[in-house]
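The records we work with from here on pair a chain with its fold. These numbers are not coordinates but entries in a learned vocabulary of local backbone shapes. To see the layout at work, look at the sequence and tokens printed below.
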Amino acid sequence: MTLVSLDGSRRKIVASVIAQVISPSQMAMALQLMAAEKPGRTAPVPEEILFWLRLNMPVAAGKIDAILHPAD
């Protein structure tokens, strides 16, 4: 799966949906685990977080995808 570059407004929508689905503590855990996988990386953008969630938290990612793409 490749990451698609998103424009600013779409990136804000993805970030907002992620925040609706996962709790702040789950987000903190995901960011910590992402940082541990690649030390020194810059802060991940929402599409990188969603990609990571698809691999490691598929139920949450499924809920996010259902909100982002309700017709699929």
